[in-house]
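Q&A log
Question type: sequence-to-structure
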Amino acid sequence: MTNNARTRVGAGALIAVSALTLTACGSGFSSGESTADAGSSAGAAGGLTSSDSALTVLIGSSGDAETKAVTDAVAAWSKESGTEATVQVASDLNQQLSQGFAAGKPADLFYLSTDQIAGFAQNGSLQAYGDELSNKSDFYPSLVQNFTVDGQFYCAPKDFSTLQLVINTDMWKAAGLTDADLPKTWDDLAAVAKKLTTPEHVGLAFGGEYARVGAFMAEAGGGLVKDGKAIASDEANVTALDYVKTHLADGTFAFAKDVGAGWGGEALGKKAAAMVIEGNWITGAMSNDFADVAYQVAELPEGPAGKGTLQFTNCWGMAADSPNQKAALDLVQYLTSADSQLAFSKAFGPMPSIISAADAWKSANPELAPFLAGADYAGFVPNEAGAADVVSDFNSQLESLKTSEPKTILDSTQSNLEAILK
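Response status: OK
Response body:
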């Protein structure tokens, strides 16, 4: 997954960057295995461990609101359960996770991103506890897939977000557009982007990276990996990148950096773009940094294959070396309950990862409902070991999409994926 400062699971979720040492160079890619020591995996072989040990929870926090919400929830569980538990906020989560595993003294529970899981699972650092969850069937199936490696469901998704279309409503009205003009197809999107493009701002902006451009690939029926096989070179992806390239070239679409913004939310907030493709974490940035900009959210238009988007999520990882995994499991179930997740959403913005909380979340956030609608059809960034390396290389090539051949980019990515999926 690409990772600028806003590519994260929700307003409060940790930026999902790989904990693995990236070794991609030229056309050679590593197997993606982590260099951290495997540590003991006795818990995985013999069921969940149990002891009187206190629990340590390691998080990567977006700010005070998230830290307080998680700390308060853990404290409430601790009081109720009688098991001591403390929350630690990492300054560098990936580094601290790797160091803890290497030393054989990791945190019991921790935020874990999709691009970390395969490497840590392969080297025995993680406890696969997903099948032990009493609320297993309540998680969105696609989120369960995100954290399933070699057929094992490793950890509970803690929250998630999807990409949708975010529109500056003042610019929309100024262009003579109404709700009836909300784009339903790629042709509609191109038409409204053209109407919205002026010398002062572009019609549509988004990050020049798979974690944004990939939404078009999904709408065309493509992606990078399907059923364990590389599909980057599929014609659907060529169609998607050709579409994006066409409108980058005619000036109605632009990458965020090309309009002087670090990410889509900044492009919308600085009024450099009338529309952007972003996730629901944009709400915090707009209220905190660009409160004068009025906006609305709409579902992304359908492509040749129908609806499509990408989702982003983290899970509650559990250490194989944790001496008190049963208590850790109980804490995870508490933190992923509807009450806890709705409280987290109110405090710092992410969407609940469980289906039973959907109606309450939509009632509390009706203007953001399109983000949750994406849960029914969202794809996700590959979670296979080594995929982060490939995506990073793909992102580098996408930066020059405006002047490059989509098929050449995709064929290169296909080769790199095939190298790691052998």
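Response note: The longest helix spans residues 64-81.
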